């Protein structure tokens, strides 16, 4: 253990060490293998690394704590069923570096506040619960019993509406179900989650139009599609195993269209390290067409594609439009056809940055395809008009009947490994009445009916001093949310913050007046301290497959508790032993939790029997299974949206946030954004060289960045400009460093998702103190 502690980095990020090289044109390859092995061995040693790699995403193994991309449920799985960033996530969890009471005693909050997330996260796994009270300068140990008593005391001392329960997407189904039950037993629907900040726009668009907030395809559909659109997504870094599916689609004769403001390596070529032939050929092409769109121009593109499809069908009646499907299964088509009957090509080219010729060529591919999938991620969900953009994507799918047939459908590609499962389990601030009624009937409680706060509204509640207790089940809320400075100031004024965590992060440093850190087991850890023996959990992947996950590694500390046990003990300490819910029974045997779920959540009937099947089971999906749509009119809906796009005034650019290749959300594995050619620094702004020249700045110049929204400004100092082949008029910076620039009111309409891809910014030359 002491050896592991000595490996923790002493040196923090020094932006003066920034190195910039040319961007790569292919993803993965043997370099990815070498990086994966190096990160694993350096953190956890050879034995732990090998044992975990052999079990990750395998039947009977554990689910990767990284992304939610699915595994095959019909065929054989590869020996290495993980990607480079999945290996990094596992290495972070397997680490033998430990954060003991000595660490907290040696580092004051003032000191830790000056450290970056990279330094904090690389210190290792937290070994026992700690507390810091008002006026104290250091965290110090606290017993589990005292920690739970403190939580219960603080919750009982306030009102339910002043308690907030945040959830990260890594929380497994069983823990998520208990967590939402705990909150509703207290009397609140204040259940914000990470989905509020990423795919909430997807659910807001999908539910009213096709009657389900999830994707409608399987992994096998990806393999057999005739055409796949990958829109606003960087699979090479964020979902690398998706590249195998795209490559297989092309091998089967399908085509791929990539739509993105940056020419990401994973959109261009994939070097499959498990395919010697692929490596010998220099990799496999991924995108047949790459549309380098302006940030925020996707709505205009989808409207243009709809116009061209209708024009082609008018030229050759019945060649494109699935008239029978539209007549039998949809509503609103005539209004849509009228809205798309004309187009202003000058405006469309301005909005998209694409030529009419390029758009027309891609529309030709779409018109010919009889089985099309649209995939998308945060590049289209984090703008004011995101919901309308996604509705236009659904319009295109409906137009050609691309639901309920092989190789076709909608595919929002989720990030966290169980963010979809958490929502299925009821973690949502706007629960449906049927769910609340089912919970009440199962447990004999009365759930609150008033809607709670989402992530953005939680930020506002902190700012208004309306939070007495904030509990975070995983995650790093302080860095994940927008308007960073206002959020951190509000969090420091809260009465009690509770963080169920595995490693130190920024949220632990900008804590409430009293703060608890409760260390928990990870996906790879054994969970065997129960009367009924070792336990397993379950997760739901991006394509509605539910399967088990069970770690087998010895935890780094005997003081760690599982999330279900932590939730149960919080509930017992808060609600008392006479509460109608038997929390103790659920904590002791997770089968008890699953039995409750089977009677509350549709699709989970016989949960305990079905989860023990080799491949788990697939949840019902009416658009996919029966070509039916569970909307309020029992039909799918066409939508009509006005043309809208992001426009920057003179001297400004539209800024989007992005992850580096050495990062997963707010976790920094390292400082090498290898595919973009950037290393050893993170405070960079990628800008097209022509825009740099036009704005009067030079490559590598140091600037302060100022965002403008509704007449107010946000500022972030000391960013380095980097000349890069971005779309003209657009720029890109890393998340979460640029979150401080996102005004809390800059959100997607309807979903309230922060506008991380919609900032209007300008640059001013940075003046160092020596120059003043």
Automatic annotation (TrEMBL):
Keywords: 4Fe-4S, Iron, Iron-sulfur, Metal-binding, Molybdenum, Oxidoreductase. Belongs to the prokaryotic molybdopterin-containing oxidoreductase family. SUPFAM superfamilies: ADC-like (SSF50692), Formate dehydrogenase/DMSO reductase, domains 1-3 (SSF53706). Residues 653-758 form the Molybdopterin dinucleotide-binding domain. Residues 125-416 form the Molybdopterin oxidoreductase domain. Pfam families: Molybdopterin, Molydop_binding. It comes from the Bacteria. It comes from Arthrobacter ginkgonis. Its cofactor is [4Fe-4S] cluster; Mo-bis(molybdopterin guanine dinucleotide). The keyword Oxidoreductase applies. CDD domains: MopB_CT_ydeP, MopB_ydeP. This is FdhF/YdeP family oxidoreductase. The keyword Hydrolase does not apply.
């Amino acid at each position: 253990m002491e050896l592991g502690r000595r490996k923790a980095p002493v040196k923090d990020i020094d932006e003066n060490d920034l190195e910039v090289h040319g961007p790569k044109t292919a993803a993965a390859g043997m370099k990815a293998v070498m990086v994966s092995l190096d990160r694993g061995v350096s953190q956890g040693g050879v034995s732990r690394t090998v044992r975990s790699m052999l079990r990750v995403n395998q039947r009977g193994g554990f689910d990767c704590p990284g992304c939610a991309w699915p595994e095959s449920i019909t065929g054989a799985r590869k020996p290495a069923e993980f990607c480079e960033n999945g290996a990094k996530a596992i290495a972070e969890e397997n680490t033998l570096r430990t954060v003991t009471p000595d660490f907290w005693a040696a580092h004051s909050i003032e000191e830790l506040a000056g450290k970056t997330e990279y330094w904090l996260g690389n210190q290792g796994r937290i070994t026992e619960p700690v507390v810091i009270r008002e006026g104290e300068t250091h965290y110090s140990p606290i017993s589990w019993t005292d920690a739970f008593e403190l939580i219960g005391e603080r919750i009982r001392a306030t009102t339910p509406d002043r308690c907030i329960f945040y959830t990260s997407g890594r929380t497994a189904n069983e823990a998520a179900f208990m967590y939402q039950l705990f909150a509703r037993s207290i009397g609140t629907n204040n259940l914000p989650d990470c989905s509020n900040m990423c795919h909430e726009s997807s659910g807001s668009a999908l539910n009213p139009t096709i009657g389900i907030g999830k994707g409608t395809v399987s992994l096998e559909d990806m393999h057999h599609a005739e055409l796949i659109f990958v829109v606003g997504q960087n699979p090479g870094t964020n979902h690398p195993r998706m590249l195998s599916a795209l490559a297989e689609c092309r091998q089967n004769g399908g085509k791929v269209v990539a739509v993105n403001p940056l020419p990401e390596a994973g959109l261009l070529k994939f070097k499959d390290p498990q395919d010697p032939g692929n490596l010998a050929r220099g990799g496999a092409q991924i995108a047949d067409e790459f549309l380098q769109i302006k940030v925020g121009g996707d709505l205009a593109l989808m409207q243009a594609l709809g116009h061209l499809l209708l024009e082609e069908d008018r030229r050759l009646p019945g060649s494109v439009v699935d008239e029978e499907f539209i007549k039998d299964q949809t509503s609103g088509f005539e209004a849509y056809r009228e809205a798309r009957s004309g187009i202003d090509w000058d405006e469309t080219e301005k909005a998209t940055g694409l030529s009419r010729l390029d758009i027309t060529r891609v529309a030709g591919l779409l018109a010919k395809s009889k089985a099309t999938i649209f995939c998308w991620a945060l590049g289209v969900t984090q703008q004011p008009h995101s919901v309308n953009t996604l509705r236009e994507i659904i319009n295109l799918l409906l137009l050609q009947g691309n639901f309920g047939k092989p190789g076709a459908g909608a595919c929002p590609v989720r990030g966290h490994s169980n963010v979809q499962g958490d929502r299925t389990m009821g973690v949502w601030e706007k629960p449906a009445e049927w769910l609340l009624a089912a919970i009440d009937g199962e447990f004999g409680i009365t759930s609150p009916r008033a809607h709670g706060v989402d992530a953005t509204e939680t930020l506002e509640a902190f700012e208004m001093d309306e939070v007495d207790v904030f509990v975070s089940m995983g995650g790093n809320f302080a860095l994940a949310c927008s308007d960073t400075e206002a959020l951190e100031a509000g969090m420091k004024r809260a009465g009690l913050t509770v963080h169920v965590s595995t490693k130190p992060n920024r949220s632990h440093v900008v804590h409430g007046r009293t703060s608890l850190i409760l260390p928990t087991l990870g996906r790879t850890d054994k969970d065997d301290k129960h009367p009924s023996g070792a336990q397993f959990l379950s997760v739901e992947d991006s394509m509605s497959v539910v399967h088990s996950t069970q770690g087998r590694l010895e935890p780094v500390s005997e003081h760690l508790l599982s999330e279900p046990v932590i939730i149960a003990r919080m509930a017992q300490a808060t609600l008392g032993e006479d509460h109608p819910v038997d929390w103790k029974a659920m904590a002791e045997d997770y089968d008890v939790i699953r039995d409750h779920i089977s009677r509350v959540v549709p699709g989970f009937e016989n949960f305990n029997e079905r989860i023990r099947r080799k491949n788990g089971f697939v949840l019902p999906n009416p658009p996919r299974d029966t070509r039916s749509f569970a909307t309020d009119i029992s039909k799918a809906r066409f939508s009509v949206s006005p043309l809208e796009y992001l426009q920057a005034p003179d001297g400004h650019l539209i800024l989007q946030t992005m992850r580096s290749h050495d990062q997963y959300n707010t976790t920094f594995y390292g400082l090498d954004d290898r595919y973009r050619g950037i290393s050893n620094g993170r405070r960079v702004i990628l800008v097209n060289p022509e825009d740099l020249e036009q704005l009067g700045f030079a490559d590598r110049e140091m600037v302060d960045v100022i965002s403008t929204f509704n007449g107010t400004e946000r500022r972030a100092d000391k960013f380095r400009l980097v000349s890069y082949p971005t779309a003209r008029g657009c720029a890109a910076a890393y998340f979460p460093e640029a979150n401080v620039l996102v005004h809390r009111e800059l959100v997607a309409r309807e979903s309230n998702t922060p506008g991380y891809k919609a900032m209007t910014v300008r640059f001013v030359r940075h003046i160092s103190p020596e120059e003043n």
